[in-house]
Amino acid sequence: MNTYEKEQERLLRLWAEDIEDEKTELPDDDEEDNEEDVVEERGDSNSEEEGDSNDEHVDGESSLQPFFMGKDGVTKWNKQPYAQRVRKSKSNILRELPGVKGVAKSALTPFQCWQLFFDDSMLTSIVENTNKSIESISNNYGRSRDAKYTNLVEMKALIGLIYLAGIHKSSRMNTEDLWNRDGTGIDMFWMTMSLQRFRFLLRVIRTDDKNTREERKQYDKLAPIREIFDSFVKNCQQHYTISEFTTVDEKLEAFRGRCGFRQYIPSKPSKYGIKILALADAKTYYTFNQEVYVGQQPPGPYQVPNDPKNVVLRLIEPISKTGRNVTTDNWFTSYPLDNRVLHST
């Protein structure tokens, strides 16, 4: 046997020895794996036994159970949610913290907060339109002081008295009772303005130009308050950032006067009133967007569909693609709406 054959035989012998060594080590690995499996199985069985034993305890000790038992006696619901260490989706990350923003941070008094929503430009418009209304009827008064023009300060005082009457729940009281000076009235009313002036301003106050109202009503049923209402909604969105949880719902503002779009909803406490559709913050109840339901609008820029899907899409437009969650009741919820919102985010 030459040297080459001897070397080949030696290598074959070494290779055979390595195979035998590996075969002898395989059972040890299997045993370790089996031991780990047994440990896991024991843990599961112990938890089941613990739950079963707790079921036998009295009701006072039921809070010690790590799970809730289903009515069928088999299903178990864990009390603590599983820890999900996953990265938050980009679509659910808010880029701006909820709360007041901009100039609203410097508002310290209730009056300053009120002025954020009813700014001087809105009140100035009301004063100008009210003075036009006074001018149109001034000839009916013998004394000029009985039909005197108003100003911004007096308009704020008038609105303040209306708020004060609401605070004292005086909506059903005779206005003369509020101006009584025998101790039964409220001093703030007669100290601010006379009863005659108060009634006069309530009769002539206007939020739009009455001379052009009929022309604007040809394409907008909300023409008398359109400018003021849109400015108010804009201010609501400008001074506050809502949280990540929002709701869309409707409310009925009590009203029994003459109105072409007054609604009757028996399920509401007021039953008669103006229906308002709103998007609100679910945590702070802050109204972020809203629109008045006026029925079918005439042809023009304000003619929009009033089905639940389009109503929700219009209300959530300011927060679209911002990662917020929108909750609606069954009247607004539909498959076309869900499909549209999911594909638009």
Task: Explain what this protein looks like in three dimensions.
The chain is of the alpha+beta class and 345 residues long. It has eleven helices and nine strands. The strands form three sheets. Strands 5, 6, 7, 8 and 9 form a five-stranded mixed sheet that branches. It is elongated, with a radius of gyration of 37 Å.
In a few lines, what is going on in this structure?
The protein has helices at residues 3-55, 110-117, 120-137, 152-167, 175-178, 187-192, 195-204, 213-216, 226-238, 308-315, 335-344; strands at residues 67-69, 76-78, 99-100, 240-241, 245-254, 263-264, 272-281, 287-292, 325-328. With 345 residues, the protein is α+β, with helices and mostly antiparallel strands. The longest helix is centred in the first third of the chain and has 53 residues, at 3-55.
Q: Approximately how much beta-strand content do the residues carry?
A: 5-15%
Structural class assignment: alpha+beta
The percentage helix is: 40-55%
Number of strands: 9
Mean pLDDT: 84
